[in-house]
Amino acid sequence: MTLADWAMWAMLAAPAAGALLLAAVSAYRSAALLNVVFSGLTLLAALALYDNRPAVGLYLSVDDLNTVFLILNALIGFTTSLFSAGYIAHEITSGRLTGRHVRFYHAMYQLLIFSMNLALLANNVGLMWVAVEIATLTTVVMVGMYRTHQALEAAWKYFILGSVGIALALFGTILVYLAAQPHLGEGLPSLAWDRIHAAAALLDPALLNLAFVFLLLGYGTKVGLAPMHAWLPDAHAEGPTPISAVLSGLLLNVALFALLRFKLIMAGNPAVLSPGPLMVALGLISLVFAAFMLYRRRDIKRMFAYSSIEHMGIITFAFGLGGPVANFAGLLHMAMHSLAKSAIFFGVGYAAQLEGTQQIREVRGLTRSQPLLGWLLVAGVVAIVGLPPFGLFASEFLIVTHTFADEPWLALPLTLGLTVGFAALMLRLHGIAFGPTDKVHVLPAMRLAPMVFHLVLVVIAGVYLPAAIVEWFRNVAELLGS
Amino acid sequence: MTSLEFDIAHLLAGSMVLVSLLLLYQDRMYALLNVFALHAVVLAVSVAWQAHIHDAHHLYVTAAIALLFKGIALPVALHHIVRRLGIHRSIETVVGVAPTMLLGVALVALSVVVMLPVTTDATSIAQEDLAFALSIVLLGMLMMVTRRNAVSQVVGFMSLENGLVLAATGAHGMPLVVEISVAFSILIACIVIGIFLFRIRERFDTVDLAALDMSRGEQP
Fold first, then answer.
1. What band does B176 get if pLDDT is binned at 50, 70 and 90?
2. Residue B77 lies in a domain
3. What is the pLDDT at residue A82?
4. Which residues in chain B touch residue A159, judged by CB atoms under 8 angstroms apart?
């Protein structure tokens, strides 16, 4: 086996071994440390895949497209495991969680990382579906972990909507198999993505059309696109905050990745309906809808969950437009959103713990009660609404200018959604960061390190995007086609 | 493959749609579970018949899973849960029986209209099986929408998964990985559901989801 093979298998073996081991560790300090170690190993394996490619197999493959997702996933999985150590420590001392929860939580965290890596690495579209389903079930039980009334309702809603979505996606996958089977033969080859992609022009267009509609609705539910988004705000608000960060930063991307795989198959066949307009429409609906929903939020984690719907809408819109520029902007926006949104959830998690509530009107004046946390949260929100010098400014600017040049009419709802979302978040930020308060909170500065790290990366990307990354993203954008 | 073999395969898949329609209007818990068991048994026979006519021996495994797990073990377990929770009275439906049935028939018509023209190239057995499978999936969804009771939503979800298994076996030569995964996911799903049902019970003394349905995490 070459280094690349080792790295690919380590992406799966490290979190799987971590899950098994952590299921037995109930001492929270050693569990948190092991969690960080296993997430770090996954990150090392992902980095090794940057310029090494193992041979493409019938089950697993590594190509330019999934390396972007794999490295981003492993990076945020690692920093979130650091954040989670501090967060869980607070939950233990405040008595909300016990040793039994610690075992369960850490094992599930590693299982979630495992299933997301498997979904990204899978060359077999059936295997990809299985992995997304495991990821869904893992997050369902984690969302319900606190066992409160709201947590149970959120988990139930997520479970029902997620299962229906995943069922539609399986139906779509079966239709893709039926389309591929006459040309690629029975059995495994007809589910291998690279072979279906290569033979895309031969496949029956009618079957592919129908399959894509099911896949778009199915995986779109998991992306959180309106109108299938109802599970997302509840799941983000009621679960432990590290899980909110991983949901927003990673799992939504994984579902979008699944969708992109099938979009590529569709793009290879000239006779099928173009998937772009469908994705553009769903993206715009999600963006505008979520932007207006942002105004009336009273729960801080729900508010940022709606902001995630908004940004997934923007990203889906960009990939729907297609072409090298929009795809590049979409990829950049996805990476930046993942980093900035998980940083915000790190900050919100601590803020909610210190204030003892998630209600926006009770979280007040953070820049005075805990200056470092307060100002970092301000920086995070300024980044997420797309102001310079942060990386989201660059990607949103690219998307908007490209839309004006290409499809001027679409720019109208796009800028409307962006502006409304911007205003709503700034309005709420004012009270949270600068409102009146007489409290003083103590928080070790080291616990904010992951948040600082994410925001620094976002600033660097906004000020000067390294040429190597531009080159890398440009190649992937070319691959994604029109 | 003779035409008699075709006809029997169609008869079995069609019976599953019929049982799905039966499920829609069951308003008693035990009856609902019994009809679901029938649904799973018809699925098992249908899959076994496919295995027989295509000489695809791995499909017998899928049939056995459907029969033993979904046809026997699950209904027995759910009977037990229903008895322990004391909810074996009638089930409330959000929409009345007549509109539900009309919607159900419309969904079957829709899936036939959508699937038949699309799959003309596929072998005819897959073609009609897929139309039936889509009907079962849609009927399962309809059931999940119209029921408020957690147990009947779960039954709706499982009938939906039965439809997916039918579709997967109808697609000739589909690798076993998917069938096992479907069975496996149902297993996991049931564990999750079981935990949830008991937690709901332990917290609120009810499995009526309407009682859960007021909180959006936002009311003061």
1. low
2. yes
3. 94
4. 192-193, 196
